[in-house]
Automatic annotation (TrEMBL):
This is DUF2264 domain-containing protein. InterPro entries: DUF2264_C, DUF2264_N, UCP014753. Residues 16-365, 372-632 form the DUF2264 domain. PANTHER family: LINALOOL DEHYDRATASE_ISOMERASE DOMAIN-CONTAINING PROTEIN (PTHR35339:SF4). Residues 523-543 are annotated as: Disordered.
Length: 637
């Protein structure tokens, strides 16, 4: 048995002590990578857009989210001294491990949030252990961000937390005026129903930064730590969380997985940290979100990640990637220490065993929320878990600044908790493109491909579908309707595209990328029956494996496209390194007339990890969806 199998995968993660053991299992391996003075943790040699010192500060700081929570909950950790020494030496200008003073928009600002949190909740075990001169250099370094320019994003919360920590230790560098101004500005990001943008008006990013990674998490933690000093704002944040939770629950499936969407997926189980922050804030949520349900949502998600060996190196440190090491999915701000943002999910360790979160019996995903479709107007998402497949349909979001692979992270048509999403590993072939759940277009005979990134005019219409426009080139416009699964065909969703083009185009529309191997580890082979394999013909493509079934079919005789089950280039999908993608490929001549194409997309994930797809999928596959009458009349199918 490997080290990971004995320490992580065997952990049942049902109790506070189990969660503590998992955290300790993540903290202990960092000792071998910690500098002699404790101020830097060096986990690898890949680069970021910021300097190496900041990257190693990131390795030092991010685990503190977990360490501080553990200490605040009354436990001790034998390695705490490493971080105390690090605070002393990292802020000492005369020490070789000095972190460096902060400049405008400095990555060091990001790492101040964990430090501020630690000073707020674990003062006695961190701050009080520092000598007076070390306290002075730490508060001066932390307060050094108060007169610096910051990005107009969730980053402002990092300065709020720095000042919050300074206030809790009685520091002279605490700037109450600066903190209030930051909070007032952050509140302008709020758009209603609990949701906040990750930036000012015009920004259309409502991803995990608007929830677990930053904004909602920060609001809830602040609402507990500052409730005496800022009660009105804290109650508003709690009210936002009550509303937001009723939407956010739909991003999780019955197995505990969260739907991968947007950037920073390497933060992994930080995706569920909102539920831990709910508990930390002592916030009771509306039905059916009982304490037992909240506990299940978080612990099932963390438990899932203990079962993913590819998320860890053999020594127990975290890899850069999602389910396995994968630099194709990363952003230019992902250092080897970045994944430890996941330590935010250990915040429930700060709570006593008697807290309702720990005292409650873990409950499954609420029955009343299963087999449902929900339209979310703020993120422009349609959420579905009909047929046991949790996924979302998306149009209208895009990153407001350059982000690697942003078309894949925000512009796809669907994102699945089971099948994840894929990113390009090149742009020369469809196999390289990672074109799942997108309509890829080529105007050069297939030499290069373009996928939707900037979506325009997106809106939910009449609670029926999500409609949007895309303008890939001058003279080319694509209008798209995304129609969620219907009760009669719960494993299918429908896409319709109207294409108007002044040039000849090739289109490639992908379904869900799926695990592409047989039981013996060899690649899937063609098979027409219910056995594991691939199947393709004109207008149809399908793949069946232990992960389930994924397929795509032409609907409505609108376009005659060739079906395939394409073996994708390795390491394009976030969830599985070797995937197959059911795809429809068509050619469209330049014309003043409109071209219409429609497809049904089938996805049935396996829940029991069987050899092949679970029995009964063929009947669901054979019952094809119909295009609704309202849109059929318009399309003239």
């Amino acid at each position: 048995m490997s080290w990971l199998e004995t320490s992580f995968a065997s952990n049942p993660l049902v109790s506070k002590s189990d969660l503590r053991a998992f955290l300790v299992g993540l903290l202990d391996p960092l000792a071998a990578h910690t500098s002699p003075g404790g101020a830097r943790i060096h986990l690898g040699y890949t680069a970021t857009h910021y300097d190496e010192t900041a990257a190693q500060l990131e390795g030092f700081s991010r685990p503190i989210w977990g360490l501080a929570s553990l200490l605040a909950g009354g436990a001790d950790y034998t390695g705490t001294r490493r971080w105390i020494d690090g605070f002393k030496n990292g802020t000492d200008r005369n020490h070789v491990e000095f972190w460096g003073d902060m400049r405008d928009k400095d990555q060091r600002m990001v790492e101040c949030s964990a430090i501020g949190f630690a000073l707020s909740v674990a003062k006695e075990k961190i701050w009080d252990k520092l000598e007076d001169n070390a306290k002075s250099t730490l508060e001066d370094w932390l307060g050094g961000m108060n007169d610096k320019q910051m990005p107009n994003t969730n980053w402002l919360w990092f300065r709020v937390f720095a000042n919050l920590g300074l206030s809790k230790v009685g520091s002279k560098r605490y700037d109450a005026k600066r903190m209030k101004a930051d909070l007032d500005h952050l509140d302008t990001f709020y758009i209603g129903d609990g949701w906040s943008r990750d930036g000012p008006e015009g920004v259309v990013q409502l991803d995990y930064y608007s929830s677990s990674f930053a904004i909602q998490y920060a609001q809830l933690v602040y609402s507990r730590l500052a409730q005496d000093e800022d009660p009105k704002r804290c109650e508003e944040y709690r009210n936002r969380a009550r509303r937001f939770a009723q939407d956010f629950v739909h991003y999780f499936d019955e197995e505990g997985r969260a739907i991968p969407f947007g950037r920073s997926m390497t933060y992994r189980f930080a995706m569920s940290s909102f539920w831990g922050a709910v508990a930390f804030a002592n916030l009771e949520l509306p039905a059916p979100l009982t304490w037992g349900v909240v506990k299940g949502l978080q612990l099932r998600n963390v438990r899932y990640w203990t079962q993913q060996p590819g998320a860890y190196y053999p020594d127990g440190t975290l890899t850069i990637g999602f389910n396995y090491p994968n630099h194709n999915i990363t952003e230019n701000y992902n250092s080897p220490g970045s994944p430890y943002w996941c330590c935010k999910s250990f915040i429930t360790l700060a709570l006593p065993e008697t807290h309702p979160f720990w005292a409650a019996k873990e409950e499954p995903y609420p029955a009343s929320l299963r087999n449902t479709v929900k339209f979310l107007k703020n993120p422009l998402h349609i959420m579905s878990n009909r047929g046991g497949h949790t996924f979302l349909l998306s149009s209208g979001q895009q990153c407001s600044y350059p982000v690697k692979q942003s078309a894949a992270k925000y512009g796809k048509l669907a994102y699945s908790s089971a099948f994840g999403y894929s990113v390009p590993v090149g742009n020369g072939t469809l196999e390289e493109l990672g074109g799942d759940n997108t309509l890829a277009l080529s105007d050069d005979g297939g030499e290069t491909w373009k996928c939707r990134r900037a979506t325009k005019e997106a809106r939910i219409e009449a609670g029926k579908w999500l409609r949007s426009m895309w303008y890939p080139w001058d003279g080319v416009e694509i209008e798209t309707w995304l129609i969620p699964p219907q009760a009669e065909t719960p494993l299918w969703h429908v896409r319709i595209h109207r294409i108007k083009t002044n040039r000849k185009l090739i289109s490639a529309e992908g379904g869900f990328a799926i695990y592409g191997q047989r039981e013996d580890g060899r690649a899937l082979e063609p098979s027409e029956g219910e056995e594991v394999g691939t199947y393709e013909k004109d207008g149809e493509g399908r793949a069946t494996s232990k992960a389930g079934v994924s397929g795509i079919v032409e609907l409505g005789e609108l376009g005659k496209r060739k079906g395939s089950a394409m073996r994708m280039d390795a390491n394009s999908n976030l969830v599985v390194a070797r995937s197959v993608l059911p795809t429809l490929v068509g050619e469209h001549e330049a014309s003043e007339d409109e071209v219409w194409i429609a497809a049904g997309i089938f996805g049935r994930p396996n829940l029991d990890c069987a050899v092949g797809a679970a029995p009964g999928w063929q009947q669901a596959w054979d019952k094809r969806p119909e295009i609704g009458k309202a849109i059929a009349d318009y399309v003239k199918v």
